Amino acid sequence: MKLPIKMPSRDVYSWDPFDDVRRMQEYMEQMLRTFPALENRYAGETFAPLTDVAEENNKVIVTTDLPGIDRENVELSLKDNVLVISAAKGKEEETEKEGYLRKERSFMRYYREIPLPEGATEEGATAQLKNGVLTVTLPKTKELTGKKILIE
């Protein structure tokens, strides 16, 4: 949509003022999508980290990017075949020089729910956080095989 919006000639009785409001709202949403920095600034500070899920013979490997997060700030849980990753980090800076004091605080949260293939279990699972990359390895129980149904 381009601005300025030109009003087509219409009958006054068919004019809906809310159409213009909806068009403007769509334009603003498009602008926020075009400039991700604006979207992140005004959206919530909870991010969904990038995640890869790989299924091997007897294990499931989940790799997630968590830049700048310490391992004591990461929580992992598995419920109903869904791996929940929650992490947070906060920072406070204070600079005091002659004539002024500057304080800055920031807080960031990562949260992601990852559905896992059937058979993944937390028994014997391992997790490693190295260089901002979390790797969770979950063993799989025996392969689930479907039974054949014979047609009579």
Automatic annotation (TrEMBL):
Boundaries of every SHSP domain copy: 41-152
PROSITE patterns: SHSP
UniProt-listed InterPro entries: A-crystallin/Hsp20_dom (IPR002068), HSP20-like_chaperone (IPR008978), HSP21-like (IPR044587)
Keyword tags: Stress response
Entries under Pfam families matching the protein: HSP20 (PF00011)
Signal sequence, renumbered to the chain: none
Any one of the GO BP annotations: response to heat
Family designation: Belongs to the small heat shock protein (HSP20) family.
Protein's UniProt name: HSP20 type chaperone
Species name: Methanosarcina lacustris Z-7289
